[in-house]
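Last lecture ended with a question: if I hand you only a sequence, what can you say about the shape of the protein? Today we answer it with a concrete record. The protein is Alpha-amylase family glycosyl hydrolase. Below, first the input exactly as provided, then the predicted structure, then a couple of comments.
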Amino acid sequence: MAANRPTEATAPWWRDAAIYQIYVRSFADGDGDGTGDLAGVRARLPYLVELGVDALWFTPWYLSPLADGGYDVADYRAIDPAFGNLAEAEKLIAEARDLGIRTLIDIVPNHVSDRHSWFEAALAAAPGSPERDLFHFREGRGDHGELPPNNWVSEFGGTPWTRVDDGQWYLHLFAPGQPDLNWAHPAVRQEHEDVLRFWFERGVAGVRIDSAALLAKDPALPDFAEGTDPHPYVDRDELHDIYRSWRAIADRYDGIFVGEVWLPDSERFARYLRPDELHTAFNFNFLACPWDAGLLRSAIDDTLAEHAPVGAPATWVLCNHDVTRTVTRYGREATGFDFAAKVFGTPTDLELGTRRARAAALLSLALPGAVYLYQGEELGLPEADIPRDRIQDPMHLRSGGTDPGRDGCRVPLPWSADEPGAGFGSSAEPWLPQPAGWSAYAADGQSTDPGSMLTLYREALRLRRGEPGFAAAPGETAEGRLDWLPSAPGVLAFRRTHGLICVVNLSGSPAQLPGHDEILLTSAPLEPSGLLPDDTAAWLRGTR
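The predicted structure:
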């Protein structure tokens, strides 16, 4: 945690935290069945302490048939048996807290699993019943109701409507196994407020809200056309009342929220971060930005500007469980990220991508605000090519097999180079196949390699926590501010409040470092002349 920061006594921890995302199924296998679990996470807590993170964000660990990687929740008060049980979750939360690491969990309020007791009851009930009122059941169009009720498109492609045996259709903005809840129904709101209390009582420090802008729907469920305002199911005004009621609950437990809010309108985005709503939200503009100095600077400026009016800290992330691994993406001709652009067989230069990913790590960790680190990024893992017959992601299946899906960034982690499954588990084959050569990225080998990605992240996180140059000035928020420095074209250079300077060279040729007292860390060695090589970043202690 940021306990060594001068402002920690008064500043909320979450404003400048380093938060590590754990996709439980692929983190570490404690019982040897091929699936990651809570026992595996508990065994690796010392690794996470040594890495230097402040908190862990767990993607859904609840009871689920895994139609969408756990984002189809059957019971919010139960841990999926593949991962462990509730007692183990409580023990993990407590053990991590004793080691100075907080826990954030994932809530998926837009939908539940089709195995959830509410939906099973709705299927068993008649059209127009109270059970079906908890969801969006409608009659179909066409002479015999054979057509979907409207023209909406699923987030995973195709129609978001599935017809049941009695002829009605139900709405699912994602997979058919994820029926959307009716947030106009008071029982839906009450249930989620009770779930929040349930987990805050068990010691979680915060909640990440999945698809936070999609919950509320136009009651008429009308057809959608580009330019429709308000949108029938994205960013509707009714959402803010929901999150105000949630914030009141979180405040009683000193808990926080981080929202998954994909919105192009910065003013609309900022509304979710007003003081009585969410604490933070993910920054997708930076995540999706190409490796280009001008575009990165604009993404940084825009992010800070859209957060400033509501006083919320920015968040920075390079990759997550839905996004192509940074090393692979930065080694491609098109270095940005767009779901629609994902195709099989895209060539990548892993050496170039790794060099850029190392520089991007120092860039993201130097920016003011909170940073999220997806498991395996600290190992420099590339996107894996999953054999088509082993892909499980519904995005692949719903696309008719054209989209490679997201499994390539979810491959089980390599821990020990000389053990079966690269040390992920003791015996069974991992649930997703590890590529040939995966053991070369193993944490045990990287731990003793001064030039490894893991060593770079450990040192960067150590400096981020303890180096005075990262601290805020009196009267500033915990994250402090950023001031751009004059620099050559293609070079990003900025100074933090107390003198930490970050320089990132994307110019295509070596660049001069600004004046400084000391070089704290570089993502690659400097040129013999002292110049900063292309695709390299440096942290400097500024001249006093």
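Comments.
1. The CA atoms of residues 411 and 433 lie 7 Å apart.
2. Confidence is low (pLDDT under 50) at residues 1-9.
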